[in-house]
Amino acid sequence: MSSTTHGTAPYYFVPGPSRHPLMAAIGLFFVILGAGQWINDHAWGAYSLAFGLIWWWVVLFQWFREAVGESEAGKYSARIDLSYRWSMSWFIFSEVMFFGAFFTALWWTRTHSLPALGSLDNALLWPDFRAVWPSVQAGATGSPAGIVEPFQTVGPFWLPTINTALLLSSGVTLTIAHHALRAGHRAQTIRFMWITVLLGVIFLGVQGYEYYHLYTELNLKLSSGAYGSTFFMLTGFHGLHVFVGMLMLLFITLRLMKGHFTPERHFGFEGAAWYWHFVDVVWLGLYVLVYWL
């Protein structure tokens, strides 16, 4: 949401009928159809997936462009601003629950499932099984039937620690940009926003290199038992959220360069900042619970 106001905004702006929800649903249909067929070895599924994603992105671009235009035209009152704030708050809450489910899965596997597999009740079935989390004892795979290939676990040094420094630094630069915007220093805001976006891109690059290292040198994969699946689900989904957050900050930066937002009204900026700080907090949990423990 921007903040340029031309005249008096309506009490509560309600947009007219729009084609965008239907068009977005059509794009998502091809995404789901293609993904489902692709993973079942139907080659045409990849083309359906690509078509659906391109279609969906085009629709989102048009949809967001209209919303920005409505905001810049002064159609959004303080009540719309409040609606956006509540909407973003509930969205971030849903993301908290999303990651909470994966953190809970990690906790349950380590503290309940693994000890249960190593209990006396299962000793006759898997007499040689060691109920030890792989990061606690080298060589332990957590595979009662011995079907998981040997792999090495990953610690906090050095790539995860570098990424932690990158994300924490990006939180600082984003906060500086926010204060500069509130003070009316647009040039400084844009400068620190570009630094924040760059830090996000570097984080993704480091994580991509880490994944390559894990697959090729440590043989740690998504199929590496409960450890591998929880590791890649948590870090992978977090990386996806960093990518989305980086795109949000990029588009906010481009809008700033076009003169959008004012020191008084700039929730579009604030909403993206909320999301980015949430991503930072999730990473700190990952860094401790996944890499250190």
Describe what this molecule looks like in 3D.
With 293 residues, the chain is an all-alpha fold. The chain is 70% helix and 0% strand. The longest helix is centred in the N-terminal third of the chain and has 40 residues, at 78-117. The two termini are 41 Å apart. The relative contact order is 0.12.
How many beta-strand segments? Answer: 0
Query: Low-confidence parts, pLDDT < 50 over ≥5 residues?
Result: 1-6
Number of distinct helices: 7
Described by the principal axes of the CA atoms, the overall outline is globular
Largest sheet: none
Strand % is under 5%
SSE ordering:
HHHHHHH
Oligomer: single chain
The first-to-last residue Cα distance is 41 Å
How much helical structure, as a percent, in the residues?
A: 55-70%
Structural class: mainly alpha
Radius of gyration: 23 Å
On the 0-100 scale, what is the average pLDDT?
90
Concise account of the structure shown:
About 70% of the residues lie in helices and about 0% in strands. It is built from seven helices and no strands.
Ordered list of secondary-structure elements with their pairings:
Layout: H1 20-38, H2 44-72, H3 78-117, H4 159-182, H5 186-218, H6 225-257, H7 267-292
Helix pairs in contact: 1-2, 3-6, 3-7, 4-5, 4-7, 5-6, 6-7
Attribute tags:
single chain, 293 residues, mainly alpha, 70% helix, globular, disordered N terminus
